Amino acid sequence: MSLVKCLLAGLGGASALNIIHESLKRTGNDMPRIDLLGEEALQKSLACMGVSPIEDENKLYKATLAADVLSNAVYYSLIGLGSKKYVWPRAIGLGLAAGVGALTLPKPMGLDPEPVTKTKKAAGLTVAYYLAGALVTGLIVKSLYKEKAQDQEVDLDASFHPEVNNDIYP
Known about the structure:
Layout: H1 3-24, H2 34-48, H3 57-76, H4 87-104, H5 114-117, H6 120-152
């Protein structure tokens, strides 16, 4: 599958992840706040590069959301690489890895893991959100493979009937 199609599939999965998260994040105090973790990561990254932090909350939210969608799209695009036979194992593996990574990597990276680990529910949903994004990517990749297969199908029966296919028998 082409890199562009892989990236588009990854964008679909990243969009699904963010739609789920944005739709549910304020429905309860025990919901994961992946956005807060992302904002902290972005601010610390800017500081490491010697760039002033983003002071405006709205701009910080938008910049974090854009970085999140972009980075997850690139990550999820890996699901489309390789044999189509292994799309689902890649989707499940990469989705679970991203979710577990969101829980376990913040602390070693100097970030506060509390927004995603504050409760068992928040931790479980964090993993589920990333898995859902990966599965959406897998669905898109599979549909692109089916589309490609349909484009390559040839109607062999038409080649044997001159009245159906005038290109072969003028």
